[in-house]
Amino acid sequence: MEKMLLTGGRFFTLDSVRPEAEALYAENGRIVAVGDRAEIELQHGRADVRRIDLQGGFAIPGLVDSHLHLAMFGKNLLWIDFSRVRSKEEMLHLVREQVAKTPPGKWVLGANWDENRFHRAEIPSRKELDAAAPRHPVFLTRVCRHVHLANSAAFRAAGITDEDRAPSEGAYGRDASGRLNGLIYEEASRPFFDAQPRLSFEEKKEMVRRAVNYALSRGLTGVHTDDLREVGNLSDTLRIYRELAREGIRFRTHHLIYHPHLAEAGERGIRAGDGDEWVTVGGVKIFADGSLGGRTALLSRPYHDDPGRTGMEVHSREELLELVAKARQWGYPVAVHAIGDLAAERVIQAMEAVPGAEGRLPDRLIHASVLRPDLIDRLKRLKVVLDIQPRFVASDFPWVMDRLGPDLLSRSFAWKTLLREGLVCAGGSDAPIEPMDPLLGIHAAITRRPPGGAGPEGGYQPEERLTRVEALTLFTKGSALAAGEEKERGTLSVGKWADVTVFDRDLLEADPEELPAARVFLTLVNGQIGYEG
Predict the structure, then answer these.
(1) Considering Cα of 64, then 65, then 67, then 73, what sign does the dihedral take?
(2) What is the pLDDT of residues 257-287, one digit of tens each?
């Protein structure tokens, strides 16, 4: 294993014993020494040691994204990207362009449309999609991943007609006459995914490889990912990442198990915490609700801009309790997607009713976007980590203000309140829903607005702004605690993995608006270079 000596930069360790240092020495994948440059040079500056001059860079513990979808991110590199589209006409134009270069009968897939960012909040109708693609099944996924849009050819391929009813955990949109209008919500999308052509193992592995290399280029040394809905089974998922590690790609992954695959994990004897230094298994992923953008997040009161709706429960209370109990029987923690406050309440009820075993990995409440004070009090009594996405503030405001109304808004995106109340928070991006860039999450956490100064002076809900150290902690100590890896990483401390992210500027001193432009100088994983900028 390579011996490596890093000097020539500022090391911000996040270790309270020694918060700052001038040099770091790593050997056999572990940090051996961190401290004064002269002392470390004297003790470890031998001829067989590789030296790296950080050229004034800023070194921090390796950043880890606590919640994203790596395989989905890789797959989306092959789809139409609507993230920059600002009208339904632009959407249709991109669809027609893709149709023109796609053989008839082949699927046309796209993602990341967000009508809240359109000049007019209108999306293409099923009829308009039919006109743009009369001979191709078209399936387009909203940025939140909880709402989809399809043309008639896609409905035929999925075997869905006007007479079919949606499953209880989803819905089909309908026009005034009761006919399908092209919109598909939550788990009603399953027949459409099932009808699409299957990727080979090698194709899946290649899309993951691309996503991993991109993550390393953004300064990430690891991620917590939910891949089973894309890859299809646990065996292939773990095989992909283990093969990539054997091939020399230095990157750590922690895997959530989507609940329909729990039996497969149990039968193979896989338990939470199993794995090695590169690939580990975490909790059971469950969805309790949808998204605020699609008005499917489950709220305790009606949407302020649509009083006839309160959201959508993916599972009934009884079903949710049963899923949590089943995870406990196999010895797993749960990781539950809950954006609305009523969804969070039902998840908390299930966690309270069926507590996990002593010594287990913590449960997770994923997103936790809307939390009433009474729910925060109950969370404090549970062994749970909140998986938050600071970037949501930059993406969801200002439209979310009208969607939630003043009362619920005051209890939403309240990251500072959660930390002040003593709750453990881990920082993620939810990529590809948001960009896979930790600097954008850190920027949003401390400014509460998009890059470039958009939004009000001081940001949205400025009282919830985090300090820079708090924001960095989300993606270091926070993500380590979520995976039960706090003894292995999260700080630049002797004995921990030699995972280091180096930027070309000081994130503690730079102007906040300069942070998204910071360049990754080096990503070091296990004392080996994963990326050089």
Answers:
(1) negative
(2) 999 999 999 889 999 999 999 999 999 999 9
